[in-house]
Known about the structure:
Layout (H helix, E strand, L loop, with lengths): L24 H4 L8 H13 L5 E2 L3 H8 L3 H13 L3 E4 L2 E4 L21 H10 L3
Antiparallel strand pairs: 1-3, 2-3
Amino acid sequence: MIRKYPVCPDRIRTTPEQFSWIDHRLVRDHHIERLTHEAAALYLFLVTVGDCQGLSYYANHNLCRHLTMDDVALTEARNCLLRAGLIAYKSPLYQVLDLTPVPQQKAGGQEANSAMSLEQIFKQIAGGRS
Length: 130
C-alpha cells in the first residue's frame, strides 16, 4: 500500500461553512466522461456557488463572464448537464442534483432492476401456467 502524505500540510482541506465539495461519484460513476469541458466548467462553478440544496441564481451574462463563454457555449454546456441528469434548470434558477441514481420505472409502476420477493417470483411463475 502506498503511504500518502500531504504535499502542503498547512493547507489541508476542511469542510467549509458553505459546503461545496464535489461528490466522488462524479468520477467513480463516470458522469464526468459524458461532459464537454464547458459543461464540466459550468458544473464546477455551480457546485462552488450553490447553497446547501445546490441552488444558485447566477444570470447567464454573469456565468458567461466568469467562465469566459459566449451565450451559445453556455447554452450547450447547460444542455449537456441537463441531458446527463446533473442539474435542473428553470431560469434563472439552477439546481445541482444529487448523484444518487434515480430508479427507472417499468410499465405498471414497478422499478426496473428492483429486487423481487420470493412470493412475487412464485406468483409470476404460477401466473404463467394455465
